[in-house]
């Protein structure tokens, strides 16, 4: 079954998304998410200029061979742009294979390992009162796990904290917004917040926190230790993760579980973290880590080292990525948690999908393939708008990690 067309579709139904749609000679189509937040056009050009021309005429059934062809054939391996482009092709080919087989993709991955995919939502608040109200809202709608982000006294804006009840969307202005960061105030304040949250909700609710790469290993060790009484399910991205052996220092001092990986694009970004058991959850995603084929490889390595999955699922990952992630999540033996932020109504309309939330779980679509599509006519009504992620500076102006 030959590939006859591959279209790169940009749309902005409230935020930017890049989607690849592959068409085969017998009319079967597949979709893959190719969105790289703030760098969308780089992936779109990579696909249009370098990938689509070599896809035309290839056998759509050869998923592994196409993956190897694009990875090894580029000579320049890895990197977020390349791996997001490969992911889009890979995801679309899995979609096609499922449709041809008449099976949802998770059946091709070995079938169900669980009844539903446990998800976590984002609770955030400038004040503890606002935060507690947000967490109650999640708990009341069935969530078993909630990520807790709080304002810090003395800082005017902090990662992950926006208007209550409104989905946090950091990429907005064409030029990066700038905020001021203060590690000491954060390290002082956060344990107090978690003391209040745990006292209010008791031991049943899973609590998570995202540091967003802002600490050094010894600062992260201090934070992990100070949060131990509140039994977090995970502390996310405590430090930038280029230096994988830096996690040894954190591990030496705290039993707070660690989750890392949303910016990873290949197994080589986390091989040491996983094989030395320096993290507990690996948060790589379908869209940024080479598609279903490569993500499965990462999760298999993780499984033999007792590391669980915790895939990234912010609103900059389109419903196409979410649909694909759920097929992986339901099938793998070492699933941990899936991040879930509902998309806007406009986005849901552009990407009709069959997955749904019920009682704290997401359920993948049962229709053949991924169970998601893109409405190209509707997508065309929302033209691309440049939007960059913010940056962070210390009080003296030094550029820090966002
Ligand atoms: C994040 C994201 O969801 C998360 O855990 O850290 O909000 C992240 O900042 C964005 O996806 C960046 O594109
Ligand atoms: Mg994160």
TrEMBL record:
InterPro entries: D-mannonate_dehydratase-like, DgoD-like, Enolase-like_C_sf, Enolase-like_N, Enolase_C-like, Mandel_Rmase/mucon_lact_enz_CS, Mandelate_racemase_C, Mandelate_racemase_N_dom
PROSITE patterns linked: MR_MLE_1 (PS00908), MR_MLE_2 (PS00909)
Domain Mandelate racemase/muconate lactonizing enzyme C-terminal span(s) in chain numbering: 128-257
GO molecular function: magnesium ion binding; mannonate dehydratase activity
PANTHER family for this protein: D-GALACTONATE DEHYDRATASE-RELATED (PTHR48080), STARVATION-SENSING PROTEIN RSPA (PTHR48080:SF6)
Organism: Actinoplanes siamensis
Protein name: D-mannonate dehydratase CC2812
First and last residue of the signal peptide: none
């Amino acid at each position: 079954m030959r590939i006859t067309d591959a279209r790169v579709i940009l749309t902005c139904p409230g935020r930017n998304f890049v989607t690849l749609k592959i068409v085969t000679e017998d009319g079967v189509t597949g979709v893959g998410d190719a969105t790289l937040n703030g760098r969308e056009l780089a992936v779109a050009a990579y696909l249009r200029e370098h990938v689509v021309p070599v896809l035309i005429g290839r056998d759509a059934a050869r998923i592994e061979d196409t993956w190897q062809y694009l990875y090894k054939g580029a000579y320049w391996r890895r990197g977020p742009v390349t791996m997001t482009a490969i992911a889009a092709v890979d995801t679309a080919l899995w979609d096609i294979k499922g449709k041809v087989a008449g099976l949802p993709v998770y059946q091709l991955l070995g079938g169900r390992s669980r009844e539903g995919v446990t998800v976590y939502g984002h609770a955030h608040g400038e004040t503890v009162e606002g935060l507690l109200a947000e967490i109650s809202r999640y708990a009341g709608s069935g969530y078993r796990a909630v990520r807790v982000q709080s304002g810090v006294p003395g800082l005017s804006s902090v990662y992950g904290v926006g208007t209550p009840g409104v989905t946090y969307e950091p990429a907005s202005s064409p030029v990066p917004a700038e905020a001021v960061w203060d590690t000491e105030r954060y390290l002082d304040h956060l344990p107090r917040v978690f003391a209040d949250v745990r006292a209010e909700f008791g031991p049943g609710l899973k609590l998570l926190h995202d540091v967003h790469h802002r600490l050094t290993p010894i600062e992260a060790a201090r934070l992990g230790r100070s949060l131990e009484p509140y039994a977090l399910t995970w502390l996310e991205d405590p430090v930038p993760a280029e230096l994988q052996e830096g996690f040894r220092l954190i591990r030496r001092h705290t039993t707070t579980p660690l989750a890392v990986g949303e910016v990873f694009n290949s197994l080589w970004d986390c091989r040491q973290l996983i094989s030395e058991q320096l993290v507990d959850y690996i948060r790589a995603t379908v869209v940024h880590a080479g598609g279903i084929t490569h993500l499965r490889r990462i999760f298999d390595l993780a499984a033999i080292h007792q590391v669980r999955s915790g895939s990234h699922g912010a609103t900059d990952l389109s419903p196409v990525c979410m649909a694909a992630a759920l097929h992986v999540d339901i099938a793998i033996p070492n699933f941990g948690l899936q991040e879930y932020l509902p998309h806007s109504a406009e986005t849901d309309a552009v990407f009709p999908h069959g997955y749904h939330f019920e009682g704290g779980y997401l359920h993948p679509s049962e229709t053949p393939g991924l169970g998601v599509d893109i409405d190209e006519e509707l997508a065309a009504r929302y033209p691309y708008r440049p939007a960059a992620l913010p940056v962070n500076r210390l009080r003296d102006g030094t550029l820090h990690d966002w």
